[in-house]
Design brief:
alpha/beta, six-stranded mixed beta sheet, 25% helix
Length: 132
């Protein structure tokens, strides 16, 4: 039995299958997922699990080189500050929320959290765990 990191078998498999430059979405409870994009639905109820809990756990297992958030996620947002703190070396991009929704159609998979904070969505782009 796996005892740490991502315990959800479906999510763990999707993370393990990521290749360089593949993207995936971590979204709030209301973020629409385009048809054809596989979804790992972790939402239990409002706030459970929190966006930050899911992000932090995934980042223990995935190398991320770039992330994209919605312009509407205020610059003083605690969520944006948390993302920046967790990904200090990753490039940041910001697009209108409508464009973030369009970009999610190209994601390898989406993760739905129980987060009820507006615009608590991020598209992450996989990097490489080795540098040579």
């Amino acid at each position: 039995m796996k005892k740490q990191g991502v315990l959800n078998a479906q999510l763990s498999g999707y993370i393990a299958a990521l290749g360089h430059m593949d993207t995936f979405l971590i979204g709030d409870a209301g973020m629409p997922v385009p048809p054809g994009v596989p979804i790992v639905d972790l939402a239990v109820c409002g706030g459970v699990p929190a966006f930050t809990q899911v992000l932090d756990t995934i980042l223990q297992e995935a190398e991320i080189e770039q992330y994209t958030v919605a312009d509407e996620l205020a610059q003083d947002s605690p969520l944006l500050a948390h993302i920046r703190a967790q990904l200090p070396h990753a490039a940041e991009a910001s697009v209108p929320h409508s464009e973030l929704k369009a970009l999610s159609a190209k994601a390898r998979f989406a993760v739905r959290t129980g987060e009820f904070t507006p615009y608590a969505n991020v598209i992450l782009r996989a990097g490489v765990a080795f540098h040579g």
